[in-house]
């Protein structure tokens, strides 16, 4: 086996900021403002702030873990270090779900913005049968390119990043020019429930922050650079999102959109929101800006789609290398590409596109399956503080027990806010990881060490089923939440439940036999 070369520490703060900001700001901002406005009105601004604060708590947990344990695999390897092979596999499975479901969401947006020029591809953010066909063609075109080893290199990344940031900057500037303050009142027309649901929906746009801790071994002075880059990244991203949200709201011309004033549900039906808002805004009728926004969105989502297809194929490959996935996924072709893994994940993405062609639903599933591994990373901080107490930690979260307990409560709320039936769907998808693990290993599974995952997910689903009846999105089950726990009692109950799980996991995972 070829020896692993020692990596050079060449990544400074600016480069790491580019990785963080570029990895987070992507497709979501081009489509989500309309979906969020439909359920929160101008309160989408508050939703972005809430989502940003919660994400920062999760991100700083990754900052400590990444600095202390510079190992590959991130959301799979770090929980595995804290909770064993089964726990690591289930969380890796959840992150894998996030990747291929998230790829479907990106392809959805790609097709929705293509619909700005080719009518009939979508209705709002839901793909039509023709749109689904176009999406599938895009998936397999990107897959074919990646099978033959074509690399989406640095130059292409720079071009696609510029093509998405310049339109956003122009959108903000022009939004300030035509801003209508009346669009911001009433600020929360649909209640706080809409704000919380919008927070979970927008969490999709914050995912990707874990990319900052991936190249830890190559970072100059990681003790200072990693946490500083994480904090600055979250600050820059949050401010950017807030600027776009303010411009979006201020630019709305109800007459130009043929909508009644404050018809926020009508805003949610707009397929390519930034472009449509710009096109119909005020006396300027900025068709040129709509064209720029659309081109930027198509290039950005097209570039992201191809990149995500390549990345998602790496997760089964990485797990197979550790003996925790089917061995066939470990094979690579002559171009150095894990072909079986790549094709397997593209098939899964295609299934998601066919079965769930609605962007909002897909993004909520992706958010849930990302939040659970993120929550496991939060739990890994106090666990590894005890089980790996002698490990040097260049960066330590101050008051880590209180900090991680709050982070775990926040992430639990996000799962609940994703709403019925997607809390149920997300839990089922996560729990499928257990029988999948049995296909790989039947001995030394450590069921007791990981039973908390079942209790946690089922508990959140139960609260979702008996909770506030307003937390429902695209209910295909025929069952409506019973409404026994209305706001804020549902949040209080979930907070207490999350604390019980937190202390249980920290105690059960730090037994004497797990300490090194």
Structure, explained:
This protein is mainly α. It has a domain at about 15-365: Amino acid/polyamine transporter I (Up-down Bundle), CATH 1.20.1740.10. It has helices at about 15-25, 30-40, 45-70, 75-115, 130-145, 155-175, 190-205, 220-250, 265, 275-280, 285-310, 315-320, 340-355, 360-385, 400-415, 420-430, 435-440, 445-465, 490-510, and strands spanning about 120-125, 125. A two-stranded antiparallel ribbon has the order 1-2. It starts with 12 loop residues before the first helix and ends in an 8-residue tail after the last helix. The model is unreliable at about 1-5 and about 150-155 (pLDDT under 50).
Q: How big a fraction of the residues is strand?
A: under 5%
CATH domain fold name of the domain at 13-367: Amino acid/polyamine transporter I
- Give the strand order, joined by hyphens, for the main sheet: 1-2
For the record, the CATH class of the domain at 13-367 is Mainly Alpha
Largest sheet: 2 strands, antiparallel
- Number of helical segments? 19
Please tell me the CATH architecture of the domain at 13-367 by its name.
Up-down Bundle
Give a count of the beta strands, DSSP E runs of length 2 or more. Answer: 2
Write out the CATH superfamily name of the domain at 13-367: Amino acid/polyamine transporter I
Tell me the overall shape. globular
Distance between the termini: 28 Å
* Helix percentage range: 55-70%
- What value does the average pLDDT take? 86
Order of helices and strands: HHHHEEHHHHHHHHHHHHHHH
Q: Helix/strand-derived class?
A: mainly alpha
| Radius of gyration from CA coordinates | 22 Å
Low-confidence stretches: 1-7, 150-155
